[in-house]
Write a structure and sequence with these properties.
Layout: H1 2-36, H2 42-45, H3 48-51, H4 53-59, E1 67-71, H5 79-86, E2 91-96, H6 105-117, E3 127-130, E4 145-151, H7 154-172, E5 173-186, E6 201-202, H8 203-212, E7 216-221, H9 251-257, E8 262-268
C-alpha cells in the first residue's frame, strides 16, 4: 500500500511538472509568434537587437495568461508584441494619455494609438485606460494586474511623476504582482538636477521611489545594457539611434554605439 501511495504521488507530481512545462512552452510559443508576426514592420523588428523583447518579457515573468498593463504605449512598439501574445488567453490594458480634444502632444498621441489599434485585428482585445502624469490614475481595475510595464518613460515623468506612477502601479497589481521597468540608465556619477533633460534616469532613485510605493526590488538584468553608451551626448539620449538627433553629423559614430544603455528592474508587490 505504501509503495502504491508513493507511486501515485510521484505520478501526480510528474503530471504537474509536465503540465507546468507545457504551459510555459505554450506561453513562450505565443510570445515568439507575436514577435515574429507579419503585423510588425521590418523597421520595428530591426530594433529587437537593442530592445530584446523576448528576453526582457521573460525576465519579468511574462505569461500569455496574465493581465498586463503597459503604461503610455506611445507608438505601440511593445503593444505590437503584447497584444497578440495575450490575445485569447490574457488581458492587455494600455494606460495612455486621455484624448481631451485638444491639439497637443497628449491628445494626439492617444489618437495615433487608437488609429493603430483599429488597423489590425491582433489589437482587437486591447483596452485603453486613462493615464494622467503626476496625478492619481487607475491604470487597471484595482488589484487585477499580474504585470505592469513601463518602457523608457521615467525621464519624461521626472521624480514626482515617477513616484505617482509607482503608486498607481502598486494599486493596479495583485499581491505578488510584478512592476517591470526598462529605462535609459543615468550613471550614478551624474547629477539628475544637472542632467534632467538628458533622457536618462538614475537606478538608485528608481529603486528608492519604487520602495517608497511599497515595492521590493526582486531582481535586475543587464539584458538591455550597452557599455558603449556614456550617457553624455550633445542632444542627450536622442543623439543615439533610433532618433539620431544630430542628423548626418557623426552619424556613423552614434550608429556604432547603438541604442542607449538601459536598466531592467523587476519589482514585486
Amino acid at each position: 500500500m505504501a509503495t502504491f501511495t508513493k507511486l501515485l504521488t510521484a505520478t501526480i507530481v510528474s503530471a504537474g511538472l509536465l503540465t507546468a512545462c507545457a504551459s510555459t512552452s505554450e506561453d513562450n510559443t505565443q510570445l515568439v509568434q507575436a514577435i515574429a508576426g507579419e503585423h510588425r514592420s521590418d523597421k520595428n523588428k530591426a530594433r529587437d537587437v537593442y530592445r530584446h523583447p523576448k528576453e526582457t518579457l521573460e525576465f519579468f515573468g511574462f505569461k500569455s495568461s496574465m493581465t498586463v498593463v503597459e503604461i503610455t504605449p506611445g507608438g505601440g512598439w511593445y503593444t505590437e508584441i503584447l497584444a497578440p501574445a495575450l490575445k485569447g488567453t490574457g488581458k492587455l490594458y494600455g494606460a495612455h494619455y486621455p484624448d481631451t480634444g485638444e491639439d497637443n502632444y497628449y491628445s494626439n498621441s492617444r489618437k495615433k494609438l487608437v488609429k493603430k489599434l483599429a488597423s489590425n485585428t491582433v489589437f482587437s482585445e486591447v483596452e485603453l485606460t486613462n493615464f494622467v502624469p503626476k496625478k492619481e490614475s487607475e491604470l487597471a481595475p484595482k488589484g487585477t494586474a499580474d504585470l505592469v510595464l513601463t518602457f523608457r518613460n521615467l525621464h519624461n515623468w521626472g521624480e514626482e511623476g515617477t513616484a505617482q506612477v509607482f503608486k498607481d502601479a502598486y494599486a493596479a497589481l495583485k499581491k505578488g504582482g510584478v512592476l517591470g521597468v526598462v529605462e535609459h540608465r543615468m550613471p550614478e556619477s551624474q547629477n539628475l538636477a544637472d542632467n534632467k533633460r538628458s533622457g536618462y534616469f538614475p537606478k538608485s532613485l528608481t529603486v528608492e521611489l519604487a520602495q517608497a510605493a511599497g515595492f521590493t526590488l526582486a531582481d535586475s538584468s543587464e539584458v538591455n545594457a550597452n557599455p558603449k553608451d556614456t550617457a553624455s551626448h550633445p542632444k542627450g539620449v536622442w543623439t543615439l539611434p533610433p532618433v539620431l538627433a544630430l542628423g548626418e553629423k557623426d552619424r556613423a559614430k552614434y550608429l556604432a554605439i547603438g541604442e542607449s544603455d538601459r536598466m531592467t528592474l523587476k519589482f514585486i508587490k
